[in-house]
Amino acid sequence: MKDLSVLVIDQVKSCPSSYSNPQEFFFKTLVIYWSFLSKQGTIVDRIDHNIQNAATTVEEGLKQLQKVLFLPSTIISFYI
Hints:
The protein is mainly α. The chain has one domain. 91% of the residues lie in helices and 0% in strands.
C-alpha cells in the first residue's frame, strides 16, 4: 500500500492533465483517501481483534499451567 504522502503527490501531479474541473479532482481525491483510511481502519480492527484473542488464550494457558503446577503439591500433601 502506498504511503499517504505519495498518494497526495501523485494526485497533485495528475490534476492538470486528468481533470478539467477542480471540484471533480477534489472529490475523486476524497474518495481515494476515504478508501485508504477505511482499509487502514479495517486492518487496525483486525489487529485489535487478534491481540484480544491472544490475550485471552494466554490467560487461559496461565490458568491451566497454574493448575498443573499446584496439582503435585496437593497430591503429595494428601498422601503424607
